[in-house]
Amino acid sequence: MDKVAPIKRIAQGIVRVLGLNPGPFTLDGTNTYVFGNGERRLLVDTGDGEQPEYFDLLKQCLGGSRIDRILLTHWHGDHIGGVNQLLAMPEVVTPDCAVFKRPDPVDARDDVRAMLAQAVLQNRLRDITDSQLFAVDDLQLQAIFAPGHTDDHMAFIVTSDSFAKERLLLTGDLVLGRGTTIVSDLQRYMESLKTMLDTRPSALLPGHGPIISGSNGETPNAVRVIESYIEHRNLRERQIVAVLSGEPPEAPPMPRNGGWRLEEVTAAVYPEITDPKVILAAQHNARLHLDKLVSDDKAEKRLGTEPAVELWALRDRQI
Questions:
Q1: Residue 248 and residue 293: Cα distance in Å, rounded?
Q2: Cβ atoms of residues 13 and 138 within 8 Å
Q3: CB neighbourhood size of 268 (10 A)
Q4: CA distance 193 to 147
Q5: pTM, whole model, 2 decimals?
Q6: What distances in angstroms separate CA 23 from CA 30, 48, 267, 277, one per listed residue?
Q7: Cβ contact 58:34 at 8 Å
Q8: Alpha-carbon gap, residue 207 to 181, rounded angstroms
Q9: Could you read off the pLDDT of 110-137 as tens digits, one per residue?
Q10: CA triplet 69, 75, 78: central angle to 5 degrees?
């Protein structure tokens, strides 16, 4: 198991620099990745911009080289928050350094606009398109549109002549090195996982947590982890169906109309979670599955009264 060190060389021309922003959702911190061996390097993600020590680590990693392209996996602040600071560091980025991000309506939000302000002001912001290629020295990064965690999420297949038999997959927050991730659109997320699985990667470079490499027999651990993510979501759906198959608690709102409140479903499926912030995330995940069950015509929403509240029940469950 990879220890999440502040700076770690992964392969020839690939170094992970930890964002030093640990937390319940960021795990040990955001993983940023420096690619290249020459005077001009490529950086994927920038940390949250609130840790001065991160920029010191980045300078140490570069050793006098500079970044000429910054690729952003998605719009979350722990991945794009360092853009403004980096563009103000001529000792770290080249004068022609460009910032690449897939455009999305969320870019118009005040907080996202603020984090990308210097890239826009200096006319450095560029689009990322599906299958777009980025080359640095003998490394190639191919962009893959992989929505589901966010609508603008990109992943990257990394190949090189120096490790010709290997195919690395930089997953952003689609797959983490430990635990599971937050999802915004479950249907698209499952499709993205299948796309990732089809690449048959030999290693995963996640947005948070340790690198996943090695193999168990002929199947790379990277493939097994993606498969486990797919099975995890399928298991959650089965667990929620099992909960909805039971009798709902005798508690307000009444009458229950055979339905369960979101908070009750969440507590039944995630009994181990006690952190209030993480509970909110678990409720979000439970709602995604419930909405998917409704979309698949397996469940339905029923209105509870006293007070009025959304309830979920299996479609064939009798009131």
A1: 18
A2: yes
A3: 17
A4: 9
A5: 0.89
A6: 10, 12, 22, 11
A7: yes
A8: 10
A9: 999 999 999 999 999 999 999 999 999 9
A10: 85
- The amino acid at residue 61 is C
Structure tokens at 284: 């979000």
DSSP letters of 197-252? HHT--SEEEESBS--B--EETTEEHHHHHHHHHHHHHHHHHHHHHHHHHSPPPS-S
Three-state SS at 47: coil
Determine which of 42-46, 157-161, 164-168, 234-238 has the lowest per-residue pLDDT on average: 164-168
Task: Confirm if 170 and 143 have CB atoms less than 8 A apart.
Answer: no
Report the distance separating Cα 240 and Cα 236, nearest Å. Answer: 6
Please choose, from the candidates 121, 69, 74, the residue with its C-alpha nearest in 3D space to the C-alpha of residue 99.
Answer: 69
Contact 83, 92 (CB under 8 A): no
Strand, helix or coil for residue 30: strand
Q: What digits encode the pLDDT tens for the residues 215-241?
A: 988 899 999 999 999 999 999 999 999
Q: How far apart are CA 179 and CA 272, in angstroms?
A: 14
Contact at 8 Å (CB) between 156 and 14? no
The CA distance from 257 to 254, in Å, is 8
Write the DSSP assignment of 85-122 as a string of letters: HHHT-TTTEEEEEEEE----GGGGSHHHHHHTHHHHHT
Which residue in the block uniquely carries the two structure tokens 């209105």?
303
The string of DSSP letters for 272-293 reads: T---HHHHHHHHHHHHHHHHHH
In the chain the first and final C-alpha atoms are separated, in Å, by: 50
pLDDT of residue 3: 63
Return the amino acid letter for 136: V
> Per the structure block, which two tokens stand in for 288?
């995604």
Question: In 3-state terms, what secondary structure has residue 66?
Answer: strand
